[in-house]
Amino acid sequence: MMDYSKLATPPACVADFCLIPIGTPTASVSNEVAAVQRLMKASGLSHSMHSAGTTLEGSWDDVMRVIGQAHTLVHENGVVRVQTDIRTGTRTDKKQHFAEKVAKVESILAADSKDGENAS
């Protein structure tokens, strides 16, 4: 029987997460988002904020630790309940920064517009 307690976590991952503070005094959560973004910067991990969350890249353990720290930070700022949606991806065939994925799609779209110019 396999000893699952010795099974390692992936060496690298990209996680897209949306932390949702519940029970804030107003509908705005910009102060909580700003606090989490300060944590992201201090973490030293690659990250990028977008309109509905943050993309974070690093080892599985580091990424999950920082997301957990974001929960603690928001709790310490007076929010009693925090919910987070996380989508995480790993791959073993090559290293690829999350910005490279976006750049690849953007280059395909750029080629589409060039093809349209050539057709006229």
UniProtKB/TrEMBL annotation:
Q: Which residues form a coiled coil?
A: none
GO cellular component: a single term: cytosol
Specify the superkingdom. Eukaryota
**Domain named Thiamine-binding protein: residues:** 15-106
Any matching Pfam family: Thiamine_BP
Tell me which InterPro entries the record gives.
MTH1187/YkoF-like, Thiamine_BP, UPF0045_domain
PANTHER family for this protein: UPF0045 PROTEIN ECM15
Q: Which family does it belong to?
A: Belongs to the UPF0045 family.
Q: What is this protein called?
A: Cell wall biogenesis protein-like protein Ecm15
Q: Which organism is it from?
A: Calycina marina
